[in-house]
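#random but structural
TW: two for the price of one
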Amino acid sequence: MRKLKMKKIISLLLTLIMIFALAACGNKAADTSSDTEVSKSQDESDLSQDKNNAEETKSEDNESQAESDLSYVKGNGKLVIGYTKYAPMNYEDENGELTGFDTELAIITCEKLGVKPEFVEINWDTKEIELNAKTIDCIWNGLTITPERQQTMEITKPYVKNAQVVLMKKGAAYDSTESLIGKTVVAEQGSVGEETIMADENLKQANYVPKNLQTDCLLELKSGTADAAVLDLTLAKTMTGEGTNFEDIVIVDYLAEEDYGVAFRKGSDICAEVNKIFDELRADGIMAALAEKYGLELAE
């Protein structure tokens, strides 16, 4: 009887031990599950934070890209102006100082913009490459406004009238561009003069030789290595005729009328500001006085 009672007690104790063991395992599983959920929640939180940080960085990059060209220039404290030596727009006087209509107009405009002008001589054929690379901030050098250029650059309203003209030595036979078929004709590479030659059925049949500068074209004419040149009227009037180094060179034909503008990077907000300044300079007579000084005619 005693032995039977003892067996029941031992059996009860074993049952209790098993119950406690199972309960402990359950708590451990619950803790593990809880830890997993916490870890998962932390991972999701970290991912969310990383995403937010990425979006903030992207937003900052977009703001940087959207910075206005005017702010960029004012931040630098200067407007870098691309030019070539081209009288009467930009050239050196007898003292070696840069002067000219565009030079003086740019200096006045920069003063009103609150920046300093910095003039950088460029290769005219690569002007747009330098502009987009931010080597320069604008092209201010008797640039002819064309639909093609307006597609790739932001150009001001017209401010000076111009035309493409044919120049030859005095006494040379000339009736029309047909007279130049088979003859050597020069123009500045990448210029509207070059475009005019390519667009003229007669001039396309000439022996066209591109030159780096319009002044180089005049030297070719003077030396006799070219028969004719197609250049800007503004330069031709200033650099040829009595009292110049090219007295024996004359204008024999007018091919195309055009206007000059200042070119900035496409979408640049500097252009609108310069247009406002041009309006002011026209209204107070400053631009007209400059045009008279350099023998130019303002665009309408």
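TW: number two ↓
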Amino acid sequence: MAKPRGLGRGLASLIPDKGSSEVGQETGIVEILVNLIDPNPFQPRKHFSPTEIAELSQSILAVGILQPILVRPVDARYQLVAGERRVRAAQAAGLDRVPAVIRSVSDAESMEIALVENLQRRDLNPIEEAYAYWRLSEELGWTQEAIGTRVGKSRSHIANLLRLLGLTDSIQGQISRGELSVAHAKVLLSVPEERREVLARRAVSEEWTVKRLQWEADHSPSTKVSAGDEVDVHLRALEVTLRRNLGTRVVLRGNSGKGTIEIPYHSVDELERFLELLQGDRGSDPGFVV
């Protein structure tokens, strides 16, 4: 994958200080009509807190918009690159114009700014954060190491968040709304897919702690064993331990004498993470890696 070309100095380098001599020029700060501004299609944030928008709106009424938004020209209109909260708050405050910096940036640059700046603010929910990493990786070709360097996160943290995207939409919604934590998601990812929905619903409705969810995951039957099959309790216990440590489904087949270990993986990065764990390189990231 390509290394991030980046915009070098980041968003700040694209927005001149209000005292700059560029103010009023095309490349400086200008006032533009709010109704000519379209949202950024690459915005990773899907939820904007009404309370936060209302508070920002009151601040704008009191002291104005202290930092201009960043837009790019698209046909006869403007498309947001950064500043959607300020635009929403300005609309709530009844303003018809906002200060803006106009820059001609490509789709890739607009995506990069939107994703990286939101990730650096660290106020995305876990699913929004995971999708932002996914877009930087899949659409811009960044490696997980490159993403981590740019946003100040470890590779294991990024890999663990990306695994959330393997959960169903309904479970992702529960995580986005804060009904389930990332730690709950770790447990759900360690059980077979057919059990996840039921466990997730019960965890939310019965307000399970992570410890309770882990207990239910470990003790609820995951497979039906025929009368002729022998279950090695020691292998099952080891299987549970491996699932916890790797944060994914692990299946041991065989007996105490010989057998096989099945560990599914969905990317080379995830495979490398498993190898590091199995080799004892556990790192310091407190996420899924234990």
